[in-house]
């Protein structure tokens, strides 16, 4: 396709926008995410010599096309809705303005990065809302789909309000707090559970969280009570215990009681094992004495909605607005802006999508973040995105904060955008009816 | 955890097995997959200088532990059920035998690779069964969770019987056929749809498949009839058209008629857009004149079941068999073999899981594939795995080949394994009741 663009000299300026067509039934909002990864990708995107060699010798591509790829550097503009912002269907999360072949080449990877990040950030936000004031930790690398998904998930979850991750490489990359974990195999490898707890505590005295469900939770909790004074005399404090199976609220209550009676009221009770936002809410509602949660699969695979109906679509080419008219997938043409209004209580009240310069009441969400391939000003930090996400979650109307499907947040289309879309459709129809076959 | 193993001198031989605890409700079988990626990972696993430096300066790990990681090379044995084999709950898809810290270090990545590959191969197999004799192509990189997931999916889907992928980097990596695609933006960027078709065909004359649903499918099909003779005179044959939206069987019938009447009976009709195995089966049952399918999101995210309840568990340490007794997650101890029996019609009839040397009737499935960190004999090819998968799908009993949940395939546990498991549980209980606190 790119080769065809180059062959026909179609290198005019193209405008693509990434947006989500509609929310999964189980989501009331999404969080913008993935922009940091996209900006890094755009600055680093290159074809390696081995890749170029393969393309050259595959017999599929012309020499001039491979030469174009060899020189490829992203040199376009990028607009985006900042990470951590609540976003809704049809809102342009990201816009790329660049020569057509350049903007087209990026399509698959931009969708791949943004989709994964928005997906997990939005799932994580539901968990944060379901367990207020609890420490949530991402345990999900193992069942994420490949390694990159696990890293993107660690980033997205932290942005959405998680306290940290067990995915160690996320720490050097983005300075996300990492939380070590202990596996059942560690207990099993020892002949004695108390020996396993002592070994573990002595090797990593900074953060002793003991896994107590390998055999019998109550017995293991009593073992913790037995060994905690031994460790304390060595200057090592047991910080927490973790239960990974069974009736978690009930076990947590019993363990809390065993620990309290054993003089360990400062030891946290953590829970993990097949958790999702619904279970978190149930445990919250039940007042379970659980201080924090490790959350894996449901988070990193966004298990109840593992994909978003999203797209990266051409909205303008060479000064002409474009749109698809495909059944059920028609798009809004042109470069767009989103205007957000707030209620008197500070909660978000409604958005209007307009063409870029068609000012509407409210605050514009789409900002320019890259120009000529370079970041514009400071690249926003993860910490800033995390703060924004916290503020946005706090500003959601109560019905959108609920886990149950709610009445949709109002997103209107400006009159001018509606008229423009109609006009573009009519123009496509007119052109279609010309119907002549152009000669070569 | 590894540091604790090293600190306590727990470097005896450990045996870990990877298995799936139970099937998702929507799966009647799984396909073994991911072994090629695991074997490559095990041969290449190293810590890079920058990673070691971070570990050294993070303040979390001891100098001797980081030195251990600096020298890390996998030197253990690996047993596995070959890729493309139908597998069922509790069957050891992979076994690692290595010093405890070495085998433990691999846990997260092995689960991550095997889980993703088994997940997508098993989903792909359902699609292959639902659309016999159709060409299925993986279109799913964009909505895969990160780039690695997309690559693993291309590999897994091809193994399960897909004809190819649109993920270009899968071709140089594994020699998987790639199928180019044309996007709606290509049509939109041109002022005229027929001009877009001509440009595309002339730039990539080897494989002309035209996307005909950007505006109006029937009109675009008639445009193809108009331009095909023009291209034919230039020596370019239109191979197919693709419909990506709308009522696909109905549109396919109309398009087939337009093409046939227009003298293009050789032009294939392909369909894509939100397809899954259920839609494929409906289209098959309806006799829709569709020759092939592009399948994206449902495949690469395994959308209806995006995770498997799988684990990598310690089954033996230093000659002593181990097991978890956690609620709902108890494991079978020891090094295991799976014995498969076949019915008189050649279909698979039942499996028995036993300890390794406890021979049972049937064919053993678990084979040794690596010794002392090196592949044993020829590394099995993707082509061989693909052949095995085709044979295994053909050997599934009809109820398991159906998309609907079926009566479970019988997987028994040998008497000796059952007695051994009971004995290990009693032994754990005995040790637990000793209850003394070992001194440092």
UniProtKB/TrEMBL annotation, chains A, B:
<protein>
    <recommendedName>
        <fullName>Nicotinate phosphoribosyltransferase</fullName>
        <ecNumber>6.3.4.21</ecNumber>
    </recommendedName>
</protein>
<dbReference type="InterPro" id="IPR041619">
    <property type="entry name" value="NAPRTase_C"/>
</dbReference>
<dbReference type="GO" id="GO:0004516">
    <property type="term" value="F:nicotinate phosphoribosyltransferase activity"/>
</dbReference>
<dbReference type="Pfam" id="PF17767">
    <property type="entry name" value="NAPRTase_N"/>
</dbReference>
<dbReference type="InterPro" id="IPR013785">
    <property type="entry name" value="Aldolase_TIM"/>
</dbReference>
<dbReference type="InterPro" id="IPR006405">
    <property type="entry name" value="Nic_PRibTrfase_pncB"/>
</dbReference>
<keyword id="KW-0808">Transferase</keyword>
<dbReference type="InterPro" id="IPR041525">
    <property type="entry name" value="N/Namide_PRibTrfase"/>
</dbReference>
<comment type="pathway">
    <text>Cofactor biosynthesis; NAD(+) biosynthesis; nicotinate D-ribonucleotide from nicotinate: step 1/1.</text>
</comment>
<feature type="domain" description="Nicotinate phosphoribosyltransferase N-terminal">
    <location>
        <begin position="1"/>
        <end position="114"/>
    </location>
</feature>
<dbReference type="InterPro" id="IPR036068">
    <property type="entry name" value="Nicotinate_pribotase-like_C"/>
</dbReference>
<dbReference type="Pfam" id="PF04095">
    <property type="entry name" value="NAPRTase"/>
</dbReference>
<dbReference type="GO" id="GO:0016757">
    <property type="term" value="F:glycosyltransferase activity"/>
</dbReference>
<keyword id="KW-0597">Phosphoprotein</keyword>
<dbReference type="InterPro" id="IPR040727">
    <property type="entry name" value="NAPRTase_N"/>
</dbReference>
<keyword id="KW-0436">Ligase</keyword>
<feature type="domain" description="Nicotinate phosphoribosyltransferase C-terminal">
    <location>
        <begin position="364"/>
        <end position="419"/>
    </location>
</feature>
<feature type="domain" description="Nicotinate/nicotinamide phosphoribosyltransferase">
    <location>
        <begin position="135"/>
        <end position="316"/>
    </location>
</feature>
<dbReference type="Pfam" id="PF17956">
    <property type="entry name" value="NAPRTase_C"/>
</dbReference>
<dbReference type="GO" id="GO:0005829">
    <property type="term" value="C:cytosol"/>
</dbReference>
<keyword id="KW-0662">Pyridine nucleotide biosynthesis</keyword>
<comment type="function">
    <text>Catalyzes the first step in the biosynthesis of NAD from nicotinic acid, the ATP-dependent synthesis of beta-nicotinate D-ribonucleotide from nicotinate and 5-phospho-D-ribose 1-phosphate.</text>
</comment>
<dbReference type="GO" id="GO:0034355">
    <property type="term" value="P:NAD+ biosynthetic process via the salvage pathway"/>
</dbReference>
<dbReference type="InterPro" id="IPR007229">
    <property type="entry name" value="Nic_PRibTrfase-Fam"/>
</dbReference>
<comment type="similarity">
    <text>Belongs to the NAPRTase family.</text>
</comment>
<keyword id="KW-0328">Glycosyltransferase</keyword>
């Amino acid at each position: 396709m790119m080769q065809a663009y180059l062959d026909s000299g179609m290198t005019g300026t193209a405008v693509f926008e990434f947006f989500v067509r509609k929310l999964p039934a189980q989501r009331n909002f999404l969080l913008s995410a993935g922009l940091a990864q996209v900006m890094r990708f755009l600055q680093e995107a290159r074809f390696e010599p081995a890749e170029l060699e393969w393309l050259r010798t595959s017999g599929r591509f012309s020499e001039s096309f491979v030469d174009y790829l060899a020189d490829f550097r992203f040199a376009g503009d990028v607009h985006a809705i900042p990470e951590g912002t609540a976003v809704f269907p049809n809102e342009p999360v990201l816009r790329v303005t660049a020569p057509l072949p350049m903007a087209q080449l990026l399509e698959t990877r931009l969708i791949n990065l943004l989709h994964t990040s928005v997906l997990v950030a939005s799932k994580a936000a539901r968990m944060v809302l379901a367990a207020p004031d609890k420490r949530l930790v991402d345990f999900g690398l193992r069942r994420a789909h490949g390694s990159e998904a696990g890293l993107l998930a660690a980033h997205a979850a932290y942005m959405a309000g998680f306290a940290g991750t067990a995915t160690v490489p996320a720490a050097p990359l983005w300075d996300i707090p990492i939380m070590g974990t202990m596996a059942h195999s560690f207990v099993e490898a020892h002949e004695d559970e108390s020996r396993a707890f002592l070994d573990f505590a002595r090797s990593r005295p900074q953060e002793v969280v003991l896994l107590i469900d390998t055999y019998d939770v109550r017995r293991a909790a009593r073992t913790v009570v037995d060994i905690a004074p031994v460790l304390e005399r060595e200057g090592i404090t047991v910080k927490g215990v973790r239960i990974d199976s069974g009736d978690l609220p009930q076990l947590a209550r019993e363990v809390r009681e065993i620990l309290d009676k054993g003089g360990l009221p400062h030891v946290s009770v953590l829970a993990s094992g097949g958790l999702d936002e619904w279970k978190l809410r149930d445990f919250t509602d039940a007042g379970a004495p659980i201080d924090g949660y490790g959350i894996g699969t449901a988070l990193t695979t966004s298990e109840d909605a593992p994909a978003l109906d999203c797209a990266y679509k051409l909205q303008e080419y060479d000064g002409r607005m474009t749109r698809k008219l495909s059944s059920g997938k028609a798009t809004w043409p042109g470069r767009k802006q989103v205007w957000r209004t707030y209620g008197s209580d500070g909660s978000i009240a409604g958005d209007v999508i307009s063409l870029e310069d068609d000012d509407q009441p409210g605050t514009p969400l789409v900002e320019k973040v890259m120009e000529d391939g370079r970041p514009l000003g400071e690249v926003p930090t993860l910490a800033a995105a995390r703060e924004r996400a916290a503020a946005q979650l706090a500003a959601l109307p109560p019905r959108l904060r609920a886990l149950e499907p709610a009445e949709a947040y109002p997103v209107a289309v400006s009159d001018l955008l509606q008229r423009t879309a109609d006009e573009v459709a009519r123009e496509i129809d007119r052109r279609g009816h010309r119907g002549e076959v152009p000669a070569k």
